[in-house]
Amino acid sequence: MTPVLSVSGVSRRFSTDVLKDVGLELSAGELVTLVGRSGSGKSALLALLAGFDQPDVGEVQIAGVPTETPPPWSTMAVLPQSFGLLDELTLEENVAAPMLFGGGPVADALARAGQLLARLGIGELKRRYPTEVSTGQRQRVALARAVAGRPKVLLADEPTAHLDHATVDLAVRLLLDFVGEGSACLVATHDPRLTARAHRRLRLVDGQLFEDQ
Ligand SMILES: Nc1ncnc2c1ncn2[C@@H]1O[C@H](COP(=O)(O)OP(=O)(O)OP(=O)(O)O)[C@@H](O)[C@H]1O
């Protein structure tokens, strides 16, 4: 089966060699974690995969097609460390946004948004605005939004950094259900509560990618 995301021979240099001959494949159904020391290149790799940056050499393919620009939201969602929520929209409108961009009915999008927020324990906050909730609550909204449009690939950067133990459990279950419906997810994380439940674990060391056994 064609991987949903594949990377071959990718290198990227800024003032030093940040990524060296990186290769990886993500298949539908996989939750894969990416660990590495601060500065090891995790965010740089996610930026290349998302099409926000281009490799000096090598290729990134989505569903077998080479990418040079960010793919549409329906194909790939990115959950950045900074969340990227829209302060003018309520929490449920933020979560519904990718579905509305996809042309779906408003009522259906808001209903799914409410369900996702409830699964993450903040259903009762859905009419609030991002500035009216805590950092951990905003992080949950960003996670709900990232899976809402059922993208083929989700790239997430430290998605549990502000969550307590019980909430991480809700987040991991949501991600496992998300990939179980046929998507793939790559998560850069330092969180052992997340890596422990991933299907595979990748590690960046000095710009090279290894798979933990
Ligand atoms: N756009 C850029 N221009 C110059 N240098 C960059 C750029 N992006 C990343 N780097 C450098 O590449 C290296 C890897 O950075 P990156 O942000 O990918 O690390 P990281 O593993 O995500 O770290 P952290 O866990 O602290 O977020 C760092 O030395 C960083 O300074």
Automatic annotation (TrEMBL):
Q: Which residues form a coiled coil?
A: none
Recorded hits in InterPro entries, A to Z, give:
AAA+_ATPase, ABC_transporter-like_ATP-bd, ABC_transpr_LolD-like, P-loop_NTPase
Keyword Iron-sulfur assigned: no
SMART domains per the UniProt record, alphabetical:
AAA
Q: What would be an example GO MF term here?
A: ATP binding
Q: Which UniProt keywords apply?
A: ATP-binding, Lipoprotein, Nucleotide-binding
- Domain named ABC transporter is located at 2-213
PANTHER family registered for this protein in UniProt: IMPORT ATP-BINDING PROTEIN, LIPOPROTEIN-RELEASING SYSTEM ATP-BINDING PROTEIN LOLD
Give the family from UniProt.
Belongs to the ABC transporter superfamily.
Q: What is this protein called?
A: Lipoprotein-releasing system ATP-binding protein LolD
What organism does this protein naturally occur in?
A: Kibdelosporangium persicum
Q: What is the lineage of its organism?
A: Bacteria, Bacillati, Actinomycetota, Actinomycetes, Pseudonocardiales
